[in-house]
User: Fold these one by one.
Assistant:
Number 1:
Amino acid sequence: GNNLTDEYGPKSKNEPRRSWMMRKRQERAAMKEGLAEWQANPYFCAGRVTVPALMDTVACQCFINTGMLTDLLTEFAGDDGRAGGALLRQIDLPPEMVGRTYGELVQRLTLHRKLVPLGLYRRKSENSAWRLQYVATNPPWHERLEISDRVFVLRERGGPWLAC
């Protein structure tokens, strides 16, 4: 079992902050999957830094497969120039979902808005001065949603795009 926290956060003020516990959970999961330590670094995850090894890999792949970069961008942005644009979007958290769980958000967006949530873009809730936001890809279903959260979603191709 996890003795760091219950599902709602620290049990007392002597325990670690929620963001620290989430980072440790992500680092353990990354190491279990065989990822390097830098791949779990919050600055890397926030898109603030890149690693030369990644640039080398992408450059080599683009040299060998000249259409790879275009294919990758097309997957994210869509290749349809008509109205609606990209299939991948970032939306505000619906106000009625603040304080609810990520699992409830997945259910609501999938069933009622035909959107597939991929993860959250969030900031450290316990320190409002902290400006480094991070991406939580497919967070645990019991993760509580916060007012500052934004949601990465995929919309269906050719479907109506609802203003979010």
Number 2:
Amino acid sequence: MSYKKAEAYYNKGTVEFQRGNLDQALKYLLKSLKLNPLDVETYANIGAVYMKKGNFQKVIDICNEAIKVDPNHIAGYANKGMAYVYQGDLDKGIESLKEALKIAPDDSQIQNLISNLVKQKEVRNQLIPEEDTISNRAKEMLQKVFILF
């Protein structure tokens, strides 16, 4: 009985998500999850709602729960990785995506995503030392100005 109810809530949540009614979708999906806490697809859809809402920490949290239920849930690792990337943490994002790649080593989307993120990280790392140097020079100049007065 509760499985059918969970499925009904899941379906309602999916429809509301497709309509763009994120709060309503979340309400139904959370009810579904409460009735069927072992359904990783429900976790994935809840994560998708949080991703659309821009609540990346919630995405990470729900993905961690999904991974506890099914340690081979590729979407759990991939979505968690993207949430880290959106938070600006490329290292954790790449790490999580590499976990997904261990499960699906032939997944070209994940391979390409990791490759692009590694390139992005390299570019960022090349730019940061230059910015640090400029910042340090500016600090030195300001210190000299303050010493004069």
Number 3:
Amino acid sequence: MSSTTTSEHGLRRVIKAVSAYVPQVPKPKKKISLTEKFVWTGIALFAYLIMGQIPLYGVTEAPKFDFLQFARVIFAAQQGTLMELGIGPIVTAGLLMQLLKGSDLIKLDFKNPDDRSLFTSATKIVTIIVISAEGGLYGSSVYGPLTADEAPLAIYVVIAQLIGSSIIVMLMDEMVQKGWGVGSGLSLFIMAGIAQTILWSVFSVVPGNDGPVGILPFVISHSADGHADDAIFRTGQLPSLFGLGLTVIVILILVYVEGIHVDVPIVSTKYRGFTAVYPIKLLYTSVIPVILSSALLANAVFMGQMLWANYNPENKSPIFNWIVQFDPKSQGGQRSPTGGILYYMTSPRSFDHVIQDPVRAAVYVIFLTTIVTVFSRLWVELGGLSAKNAAKNLLDADVQVPGFRRAEGSVETLLNRYIPSLTIISGITLGLLSSLSDILNVFGSGTGLLLMVNIMVSYYQTLVKEQVDMHMPGLAAMLGRKP
């Protein structure tokens, strides 16, 4: 956006006028203690968990398909509850605005408080639009057929619940981020959802085909009759000791990899004698490329399910069979492709399936690693992470690299030694870790573990900053944060 044209001035006025009617959480009027922040963070988390257990009013039966099956981990969503859409609409709107910002389609000066406020208001407006669109489309297409015969108006009640609950989640995230809580509300909800899945796999006493679903209750129940070794490998996607061991190993690998970085020395031009390092992480692009890749696959499977259910429910069309096939006899909403291109694009999610069809496993690993790497390259350019942007950010922070002129071109040349190669390495590493973890059936899925560990590390760093701000306000001011 440029502040020089009439149309752009008009757009600014429209955004400001509309934002006056958008619900928002005020910033705290005084400094919030860390203990109080934990309390508000806990309240937001508790509310999310409760909403994830409240079924949608007016829905009497589950849909034939779970169309968000492959996206529920990254969207912190629970089927059939107020958290049906999870944080999906909020993440979608946020990524859209970030792409517009990173690609310079939005011309704003983010050093200017008014422009930053304008961008925040625009993001919230776009978020509400996406929430309304997704709530309306998803509610009418998925739950409309289930409510039309019994109560024609029930679908509007369902849509209102989907939209209303998503707006509540948006406000809870805003509350946490505006200083009432710690970190990000969205990250907190994702981490909680993944942790729930892992705890369910470990401790659930719900009966399955061969005993309790949870691996620990299964071991205890089978130890009495001398068959505890049955827990090492279990059929299908049931939790096993093998999967538990792999989950622990993957978490340790991720924690280790998260700590690997290249340090570029920097000195302050504002405070003489103040030196530090600018760390460029091995996982430079973070987990955003994995989220984008998972969202792409989830949407592909979603479209495949829609096409199959409407045009090829008996797998008799050669053209549609080439795209995707499902088992017509399978019951419930959790259906995975059994043939077609989408079959090779989705994870086997079972060691048994890997042995039965190693070609599918190999194709999936190669495919996911490739698209994660491609998204890594794209995100660096569109997300404002390129060497040019990093150099500009360093100079804007009043620091420079010793031995290099204080000019963008000079610093950019230095950063180009690391960022392009680390971008590729980051994509390959993330893709391999995610895909291999998926096919080996780790608890919470490979993508889920990547997200959880990344969020936990981020929360640890946030808590360290909070401690610095609280106990050493002078140092916090030097680092550019308000005491």
Number 4:
Amino acid sequence: MKDPVTSESDHSFEAVRNASRHLRSLRPVDLAPTLGRGIPRWPSHPHLIIDQTIVHENDGYYCQNLSMAEHIGCHVDAPAHTVADQMHATVDKIAADRLIAEAVVYDFSDRDWKPGDILTPSDIEAYERKHGIAVNDDEIALVNFGWLKRHWRRDTQAQWYARNSPGMNEELVLLFKERNVRAVGADTIACEAALVDGVPRGTLPGHFRHWLPNGILILECVANLELVSRRCLFVATPLPIERGSGSPLRPIAYCCDDC
């Protein structure tokens, strides 16, 4: 007679092995730009500072000190970031697996986007008809404008990326809300916000009215989306920063090349 504990353990181990084997069959894509001095930042946020405070020559080991805003590089916005009556919904309260979900990439990087240009529901619906794919309930929507690939830099012009971007109109923000997605992300610094010289075109309806107030998280500065299959497994988890308004992320998209 089989020992029930051994039998259950064998079954559990096999499930883990199968999951690991399947994950290794997918193509991983790193979705975070490198955090370093001089990268773009939201204009009112402090600079990212990285100091080599402990070095091998003096201390026998190596360690750096970081000073940065929570919203630096690829990051997630928690509801508390913009919703005053949701200060209980800080980043440390987000479930660790909240950003592990299927995702759909809407790739519009072939367009010649200018600051202030707007993506609309008709653009999304046409894309879905063309490719036979659509984001569904409890999934993540990712929009690739091609903006980060074209304009992310670390020189004296880095802030141009932070002050200019295409965005989404309120009707599109509502469309994603009605799809009941977990999160919406983009390769721009403020997701749905269209910016011209640092001035938003509109009122950031995802941040203030439709997404964050309803628990739909916002992902910003998502890199390398041009390398991701249209449907992928998105894997990220925020740092549990106490009372945090957001957190840097290093997401991975696990892709199937026939998706």
